[in-house]
From TrEMBL:
Keywords, sorted A to Z: Cell membrane, Membrane, Transmembrane, Transmembrane helix, Transport
Gene Ontology molecular functions: transmembrane transporter activity
Pfam families: MFS_1
Keyword Transmembrane helix: yes
Protein's membrane topology: Multi-pass membrane protein
Coiled coil: none
Family matches, as PANTHER family: MULTIDRUG RESISTANCE PROTEIN MDTH, RESISTANCE PROTEIN MDTM, PUTATIVE-RELATED-RELATED
Ranges where the Major facilitator superfamily (MFS) profile domain occurs: 1-428
Transmembrane segments: 12-34, 54-76, 83-102, 108-129, 141-162, 168-187, 226-245, 286-303, 315-334, 340-358, 379-399, 405-424
The protein's name in its UniProt record: MFS transporter
One GO cellular component term noted in the UniProt record for this chain: plasma membrane
Subcellular localization, as worded in the UniProt entry: Cell membrane
Length: 434
């Protein structure tokens, strides 16, 4: 990688890690909120707090994370990535400050909505920056994904560790600090945003992209051009990935809590000289963080695969494996914690192998001039529509059981695999002129 590649990759790695640090720290708080809050006061109504209730609350924040990606993608095609990334980081810091001051579940909900709105612009901004500014694009995607998984794994791990010595509101306030510092760094970053593509004129390194849509009519035209092609198939894959991702992760710590081997351990029993004040170590939080952290390997493998084979082949295989793993999760859990640890590592690696593959598929099947719009739609589907996976999981767990949840997730994975096979067939027919 050249100097410009390294400058861009360094910034997006930092920002991507921050985004997912906050995103995946939220499920750590869910089990605490279930115990702390009895009701949600909303418009004069008192709503009892259940897994379904919290599923809706968390889904609302995660939905904005995806819904805001589309306008974010439009904006990044007009003004470039750096300023949007800085705004994202400062916005996330502010939302966690609000979360730390939350006196009730309504304010928690508002803080999650603020976080979702701020975080939503990152993926179209960051991925557009890689796809247009980095010459070794596959490697850039790989390092970007690795940084995201470090945030995904270390964020919950740091959160769980801080909860050993602090209450959850103080932990939220502490977590706000790194994003504010990263935002200051983003404002000072300098690079050429279009160095990696020769079909968009460069502008001497200014932050403006110089492309995109200027009116609602152009937006409709560009959108129609995207969805009459292969991108429409990729979009379905992205939605399925989002539903699976949210569906399995939102309540995973809560699901693990009731399994053998995950009983809480008194902090004083581990550190006899430390006054734990009745605090406990919750093993499920660390299993959850570990599962996410090993996803670094999956991101790296998926990113490297995009430089070696068409991504749709990898997508079909990965989601087929995820369907099998979803069906096997509970039977393996019944065997004990040791087999589950090995299984969890495999599950975490496979879950995150898919992301760089579908990100590369978007780049392969969209024009560079509307790449931000393309990634905006991608994360509208993955994190916006996909956010419904959290609400779906909460409803299934409230009115059904974990077996029904994992069977549903397996079905979603098979849908993604089937559409990847459809994309392969389409590309073969196009290559042969049939």
């Amino acid at each position: 990688m050249n100097g410009n590649d390294r400058s861009i990759t360094g910034l997006v790695m930092l920002a991507h890690g921050m985004v997912h640090t906050y995103e995946l720290s939220i499920p750590i708080f869910v089990s605490i909120w279930l115990a702390e809050f009895d009701s949600l006061q909303l418009a004069g109504l008192e709503i009892g707090v259940t897994q379904a209730t919290l599923g809706v609350v968390v889904t609302a924040g995660y939905a904005l994370f995806g819904l805001g990606a589309l306008p974010g993608g439009i904006v990044v095609d007009r003004i470039g990535s750096r300023r949007l990334i800085a705004a994202c980081l400062f916005g996330m810091a502010g939302s966690f400050l609000l979360l730390g001051a939350a006196p009730n579940l309504l304010v928690v909900t508002l803080a999650l909505l603020a976080w979702g709105a701020a975080a939503s612009v990152y993926h179209p901004a960051g991925l557009t920056l890689i796809s247009k500014g980095v010459t070794e694009r596959g490697t850039g995607f790989a390092y970007h994904g690795i940084a995201g998984n470090l945030g995904i794994g270390l964020g919950p791990l740091v959160t769980a560790t801080l909860l050993l010595v602090m209450d959850w509101t103080t932990v939220a306030l502490v977590l706000a600090v790194p994003a504010a510092v990263a935002g200051l760094y983003a404002l000072r970053a300098e690079f050429d945003e279009t160095a990696g593509t020769d079909d968009v004129a460069t502008d001497g390194g200014d932050s403006r992209a110089g492309t995109g849509v200027d009116s609602f009519g152009e937006f409709l035209t560009a959108s129609r051009q995207l969805f009459v092609g292969a991108f429409a198939i990729v979009f379905v894959v992205v939605i399925a990935n989002g539903l699976f991702y949210r569906g399995v992760l939102t309540f995973l710590p809560d699901l693990l809590e009731g399994l053998p081997g995950f009983e809480p351990i008194a902090l004083s029993a581990v550190a006899p000289g430390l006054d734990g004040g009745g605090r406990t170590i919750n093993p499920e939080r660390y299993f959850y963080a570990g599962l996410l952290l090993v996803g670094v390997a999956g991101q790296y493998v998926g990113g490297k695969l995009t430089d070696r084979l068409p991504p749709e082949y990898g997508i079909a295989a990965v989601f087929g494996v995820l369907a099998v793993l979803a069906l096997a999760f509970l039977p393996v859990a019944a065997l004990g914690i040791a087999p589950l640890l090995v299984f969890g590592a495999l599950f975490g690696v496979t879950l995150f192998t898919a992301q760089p593959l579908y990100q590369a598929a978007v780049a392969d099947h969209t024009p560079a001039g509307t790449r931000g719009l393309s990634y905006g739609y991608t994360y509208l589907g993955g994190f916006g529509v996909g956010a419904l996976g959290g609400g779906l999981a909460g409803a299934i767990l409230t009115y059904g059981d974990a077996g029904a949840l994992f069977a549903t997730l397996a079905g979603i994975a098979l849908v993604a695999s089937a559409f990847a096979l459809l994309l392969i067939r389409r590309e073969r027919r196009s290559a042969t002129g049939a």
